[in-house]
Write a structure and sequence with these properties.
single chain; 386 residues; 2 domains; 5-stranded mixed β-sheet; 1% helix; globular
């Protein structure tokens, strides 16, 4: 291999920079600046291994081939990912579970380690007992948003409780939604968290590192609640499968670009009509499973379907969970695994925790059991948006 020694390669005004053809390795005692641009400016027909800086998400990304596409280069920081050392660094993704309505309205916070099978463990308490909350997870923080504060369903809240994922303890007041809401959809990347729907057609957002008041992001095509939501660092995808008036169902899927603002755009359709699903993702693939189909009455689902977040189109069959259920919001995801805690088959709660391997289709396996409330809202510090 030929070797070129130079202090720098730089394109100056009015000059053409040299083309280096066939270079397979570049070393520097200092630094180098890779090509950069927005998500929309990603080059076509790239070779696997192509590196660039994505200015939309403020991160390096690498092209991993046509099947996987572009993937954000992840930081591997022990305190963010909840454990792991040496070759296991990054395997300690922590799944967080907040609140829940069974056996009574709960203020419980529980956690699991996504990489290891087992039952959930106590983490702390939220500021109030509630149910039908929606959560988001960042690398450092996780939060429970809104929710129902009385069993009659007449009282909702706009409070957002937050915990530091790597520690244990009670939540603190963190932010405020634009109005009282329950049963929406929660999305996040490393910078921004979104609350979608919740009985309205509104999308709102907050900067995770700052908290405070959520602000308007855009609109859905219709009022919606009980959405299944999932994200990559650049895109948020969610179902519109329980439109208002309540239980007027749809199999429609929509998406937004996480770091811009604006209205949602049509993505495709689910294979079946259902609501109160579980959902989760890594940076590439989203999975929707379980749920309730009101026609025929009482048709509780155990099927799972998947989509590729970076494209648009209809979902494809993935497999089945171990037991049909509904109303456990979200999931606990790492880059490789989706964990689904609890749910209902009315009138009884389901305490079983299931697990899917995201990269391969197939049926879920038993992960463990919930110790307390069934139907919590779930998130993690290692899901696809991060």
């Amino acid at each position: 291999m030929s070797e070129i020694n130079a202090s720098n390669f730089k394109k100056e005004h009015g000059d053409l920079a040299p083309d280096l053809v066939g270079v397979t390795e570049l070393t520097s005692p200092y630094f180098f600046v890779p090509p950069s641009g927005t998500t929309a400016e990603r080059p076509e027909n790239c070779e696997p291994g192509t590196l660039r800086f994505n200015t939309d998400i403020g991160s390096l990304e690498v092209f991993r081939g046509d099947t996987i596409g572009w993937e954000q280069i992840q930081r591997r920081v022990d305190q963010y990912l909840g454990g792991g050392t040496g070759s296991n660094l990054g395997t300690g993704t922590r799944g967080m579970m907040f609140n829940g309505p069974t056996p009574s309205f709960s203020n419980s916070i529980r956690f699991i380690t996504v990489s290891s099978m087992g039952d959930d463990e106590d983490f702390g308490d939220t500021t109030a007992a509630k149910a039908n909350c929606i959560s988001f997870g960042g690398r450092v923080r996780a939060a429970s948003m809104g929710g129902q504060t009385t069993p009659s369903g007449s009282s909702w809240t706009n409070d957002v409780d937050m915990v530091i994922v790597a520690s244990k303890g009670d939540s603190t007041d963190y932010a405020t939604l634009t109005s009282n809401k329950k049963e929406g959809g929660g999305l996040s990347n490393e910078i921004r968290a979104l609350y979608v729907g919740g009985g309205y057609n509104i999308i709102e957002s907050v900067t995770i590192s700052q908290g405070g008041n959520f602000v308007d992001f855009g609109d859905l095509s219709n009022n919606a609640e009980q959405l299944a939501a999932m994200s990559s660092p650049t895109r948020g995808v969610f179902t519109m499968n329980s439109l208002i008036p309540q239980y007027s169902t749809s199999n429609q899927i929509e998406f937004v670009t996480m770091m811009s603002t604006g209205n949602s755009i049509d993505f495709g359709d689910m294979t079946s009509v259902r609501f109160a699903n579980n959902s989760g993702s890594n940076a590439t693939r989203g999975i929707i499973c379980n749920g309730y189909n009101p026609s025929p009455a009482g048709a509780v689902q155990n099927t799972a379907e998947f989509l590729t977040i970076s494209t648009t189109g209809n979902t494809i069959d993935f497999g089945d969970t171990t037991q049909a259920r509904y109303s456990s919001f979200g999931s606990c995801c790492s880059r490789t695994r989706m964990v689904i805690p609890g749910g209902y088959v009315a009138p009884a709660p389901v305490t079983t925790i299931d697990s899917f391997e995201i990269a391969t289709t197939g049926n879920a396996i038993d992960f463990g059991d919930l110790a307390t409330a069934a139907g919590p809202t779930c998130t993690s510090n290692g899901h696809g948006g991060l």
